[in-house]
Amino acid sequence: MKQKLEYIDINSSMHKANPTVKILYLILFVVISYLPFNLDYIVLANCILVFYLIISSRIPLKYYIRNVLQTKLIIIAMFIILASFRFTFLQSLLIVLPFILAVCLYCLIIYTTFPFDLAMGIYDMVKYLNIFGINKSNLFIKIYNLVYFRKDYEIEEEKIIEAREIKGENIRHQNIIGRFITHINLVPEVLKRVKKFQQKRKAVMRKNAFNVDNYMAHLQITDIIYLLMFGLLIFMYIIKVI
Amino acid sequence: MIMNIKFEEVSLIKNYRMINEEAYFIKMNASFESGKMYLIKGDNDKYLISKLIMNFIEPTFGTIYIGDYRLQRGKYLKNIKSLRRHIGYLPYDYDEKFNYKLVNNIFKEILYNYDYQTDKDNELVEDIIAKTGCYLDYKNEKLENLDSITRYKLYLASLLIINPEIIIVEKIINDEKIKSYLDHLAHEEGKIVIFIGNYNMQVDKTYIVKDKKLEEVKQ
User: Fold this and answer.
1) In terms of domains, do A159 and A232 share one?
2) CA of B218 to nearest chain A CA: how many angstroms apart?
C-alpha cells in the first residue's frame, strides 16, 4: 500500500494555519523567487523562510523528498537548459532551488490542509468574483470538486483497473510502457466516471442546502508574522532593485 | 487442481513506518480448504482479504499461499493471470465497477481475456446462465433493462464461466438457485466458496475479523 499525497492528521502550527494564507505563501514564494533582476540574498532568505515552514509542519522530510524525486526529470532538464545558457552551477541552483521548494510547499499545503478547508481557502481568495453575479455556494462546490479531482480520479481509475483485472486483464503487472499506455487509454472512461460522480456530489450538496457562509477560517498570529516576513522580502526587493 | 489458501503471519499495514501508519491486519493466520464454504464477518477491513487473495494489494509481512503460488511483499508474480484464472471474485460494488451496456459483453470480455475458443462461447454462456437461473435472450438484452437480481446473477455467472477453483462473493442475495448452485460447487465439485459480509448463513466455517486478526467462530 503506497503512501499517497494526502492530508496527514497531526498537530502542528502549519495544520492550524489559515488555508488561504498557506496558498498565499506559495504564490508569494514563487513571485519573490522569480522576480526579474532579483538579488541572491533575497532568494536565499525566501528559501530559508519556506524551509522553516516545512520544518514547522512536523511532517518528516522524507515525505517531501519522495515527492520532489517525482519531478527529477524536470529538475535535470532545468539544469541542462540553464547550463546551455552558460549559467554557472550556483546561478542555476538559485533558479532550481526555489522550484524544488515550491514543490515542497505545495506538498505542505496538501499534507497540512483538509481538502474541505483547502477548497475554503481557495474560495476565500476568489469569492469576490460573486460581484459578477456568480452564486457563492455554486462557486464553492466547483472549487471543492476541483480540489477533490485528483483523488476522485485516482479512486475511479482504481475501480476500473480492478474491474478489468477481475475479468482477466493484466494491467498492474505489465512493464512500464504497457502501464503507461493503459493509463492513457483509460483517461476518457475515468473522466466520464469522475464527471458523473462529481455531479452526484453537487446534487447532494445542493439537496442538503449547503451554505458556504456557515463556514469561516480564522487568522492566526503566526500567519500574520509569516506574511509580514514575505512582505519584508518584497519591500527589500523594491528598495534595492527598483 | 487443488487450490487451498493459507494465510501465514500476514500483516497489512498502510504507510508502514510512516507518521500516519495504519494497521489493518497483524500476524493473521487462516486457511481455506477445497470443498468447503466459508463466511468472513466483521468490520470493513474484511473486504481487504479478497483484495489480498486477488493480489490487488500485497501483504506488508507474511505469506499467502494459494495452491502453488506464493504472494509476498515485493515478490513480482509474472504469471498473475494464471493465478487469477483460478479465482472468481464478485466485489460488493460490482454494479458500480462493471460498466457494461450489453449483457453479451459481460461474458465476451472474460472469455476473450482467458483465451477461450470462440466457437464454444455460446455453449458455455448458455450453460452457465441456465445454472444460475437467469433465463433471458442474453445476446440482445441491455443491462439497463434488467432488475438488480438478474444483474447480480449475470455478473456471478460471468465469473463462474471460466470454472474457477476459488469463488469469492462479497454480496449475497436471497435466491435458492444461486445458493444451491454455490453449495453444489463447494461440496460436489470441491471448490472453495468464500462469502464475505455480515450475513447469517449455513457454512462449514465462519471467520470474524477481530483485533486485526481472523478468528474462527466456534459453531
Assistant:
1) no
2) 32
